Every structure is written in C-alpha cells, then in structure tokens.
Amino acid sequence: FDDDGSWNYQFKNGNALGQISQSQTKQYEISVIAYDSFDRPREVTTNIYYDVVEPTINEPSISPLVIRDSVKKVNGKIKIEGTVVDDDEIQSVKYSYVKKDSDVIDLDVNKVTTSKTNWNYNFEVDTTSLEDKKETIITLTAVDRVGNIATKNITINVDQETDNPQIILSNANASITEY
What is the value of pTM for the model shown? Predict the structure, then answer.
C-alpha cells in the first residue's frame, strides 16, 4: 500500500494475464481482498476487458441519390444506413456534420438491431440545412466497450436543383436551334 492507502499491481514481464494476441478480446474477473486494521477482510470483484481492436464501420448506403455530370448528388431529406461490427461490444455510434449556419450537429444514430457486436443503424439528414452546391462531410464515430474509437467520413454533394426535371433528347436533329 502507498502512504495514501492506494495500491497498484505491476504485471510481471508486462503481462500477468498470459499471452494475449493483438486481435484477441478477453474478459478477466479480478478479485482483491483487503484487510482493515482489525484484520477483517473485504473482497471486491470486478471485470476487466482487454480489447485493442476498434470497431469496423462498413460503407453506408445513401438514398436517394441523383447522378448528374457523373457525380452522385443529394437534396432534400436523405437516409443513411449502414452496419458497425466489433469483436466484443459496441457502446455507441454517433454522426456529426456542420450546418450552413455553422451549427454542429452531433447525434446518436437510430439503432435497428440489438446485437452487441453488430449494429445496423440509420439516420436522416435534411440537406436543406446544408450549404448548397458544396460538399458536406458527415462523420460517423463508433466506440466499443473499452473505448476503442473508429471514424468514417462520408462526403455528400448537396445540390438542391437535382429534383428539377431534366430533358434529354436522344434523337433530336442538330439543326433545330429554337422552337
């Protein structure tokens, strides 16, 4: 014990729990027995989680998308759906972006499944609150039980005119200039 009553344990050779590979997730139950000045024992048991692998954020889908000039563009309300997986337990998944008035939106996603290791999620973004004719980056952040963090940036191209009708003539005579 230290002078202030606290104590610490040094792992032998850096690892008293056995050899653990970098990709291995383990849960350990640790029990500690302390004795007071009257030699009465007090036992405390807790779990320690070892996990060095961050969650994986799979490529999300965005709908609806409009392709104009070979660029995927969005307007109005869009839905973003995807999956986050982890070898242990996902704690949270959030998304954030900056609106055109510089307000930062930082919200939890809608969790669709209840599996600890596999979250299907979705959320909506109203693109009318974003800068028109610009790219906006939406950042997904996933955190697992021990605090490993993964992020994925999604770039959307906002164009509020993509829902306007577009006329494409497939067999018009090139000599016609006006009607």
Answer: 0.71
